[in-house]
Each structure stands twice: as structure tokens, then as C-alpha cells.
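Researcher: I'm preparing a figure for a lab meeting and need a structural model of a single chain. I don't have an experimental structure, so a prediction will have to do for now. The sequence is pasted below. Please return the structure as C-alpha cells so I can convert it later.
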Amino acid sequence: MGSVLSLCGVKSKKKNVQEERLLRANDREFNLSFKYANNAIKTSKYNIFTFLPLNLFEQFQRLANAYFVFLLILQLIPAISSLSWFTTVVPLLLVLSITLAKDGSDDINRHRNDRQVNNRKVDVLIDGQLRTEKWMNVQVGDIIKLENNQFVTADLLLLSSSEPLNLIYIETAELDGETNLKVKQALTITGEMGDNIDKLAAFKGEVRCEAPNNRLDKFTGMLTVNGEMFALDNERILLRGCTLRNTEWCFGLVLFGGTQQESTLSI
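Model: Understood. Here is the structure written out cell by cell.
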């Protein structure tokens, strides 16, 4: 698979972006050329300008509300109905107003949650130094450092950890409801870098993997380091929404960010 993929030229990269993903560690310029999503998320539906027209449009798509509008039109024609149009307008406006208030309140909470998550801080390796960045500024191909009890910032390829054999322990309750800890392990070739910032900054591994999807238990990809190819599977991947447990630190390479992440759950 790897040898076939390596024959693809530059012109085919963007064409196949939906079928596979290609990225390089510590190379933002290369990765940005594919226009991958950054790590910002948006779960809100409306803004201050679209809320009223869009919400009313959605409400009038409901059969009950459409029926009341049709009934109101008939009541405005004296030859058809002798009932006052107030008998229909009042309950209709009441229903619309209550729904507007509820949907508006829910969307304000979604905006607040999005802002809270996007502004969380994480250590990102940039220009050979660990810098504290907001989650929303993290890019595909960045190497980030996580510490014990931190949420996983984005969908990551595990590179190294503080534990023997480059193991880490994660809790996936936010994704699948399971509270028992799961074990992940980095490849030996990347685990040897440990927490050496100079080695991590010099790492130029290239990843070819499947396109973003919502599968939590399967992953296929290939890591190329110094001309050698290594198969990647789900045991090497940390999904956004997991929590690092019983592990002092680990480093990971961002594969998917924002709305393109495999785990679409907001935390």
C-alpha cells in the first residue's frame, strides 16, 4: 500500500484528500497547503443575524405550525370563515415565542461551551520550543505535549510517553461511556525520542492515513520515517475527548482537528 501511495504526484494529493490524508510532522507550510481544518469546533447553530429568520424557517417546517398558518390564511377570507383571526394568531405566536426562547437559550449555551473548549490551553512544539497555545490554534501536523489528567486536545498519533515501553493510560468515558482505563502504546521508532525537545523538533515523519470518519475502534495508516514504513492502527491513536490518566506526560502528532476529527463529541 505504502509503495503505491508513494507514487502519487503533487497534483493528486488534493484530489485524493477525501480518500486519504497526508501530513508531515513539524511542517505547517506543507500541511496548510491541503486546507485541513484547524482545531476550532463549532456546535452552535445560529449567530445574532441568522437566529430569527433561520429559527422561524425551521419552526414553520413543522407540520403543526404550517397547519396553523394555513388556517390563519383561511380565516382572513370572510367568505370562508366567520372566526376571528385572533383565535389562531395568539396560540401560534405563543408557541413560536416559547420555542424561540428555548432554542435561543440552548444556542447561547453552545456558544459558551464552544468558547470554553476552543480557549483551553495546551503545549505545542513550535520552532523548537514548547509554547502554550489555545486549542483552536492547533494545526494538523503539530506535535503537542499532554500531562496527566489533561483532555486529549485533538486526534493524535502517540509518539512517546513517560511510561516504560511508551505505554499510556486513557479514560474514554466521554466517548463510549466506559470508565475502565485503556492502554495505548507508541511505536518504538518514535518512542525513542522521549521528551527530548530537540529530537521531537527535528522529527519529520510523514503520515498517510484514512480520511476523517466517526469510527472509534478502527484506524489504518502508515508512518514513514527516514525511508522506513511503519503500519499504524487504533492502538497508536488518541481520540479527542479522552483523558490521560496515570501517565506523567506524553507527546502526540495531530492527525485530525476541529470538525474533521474522528471523535466528534464536544467536551
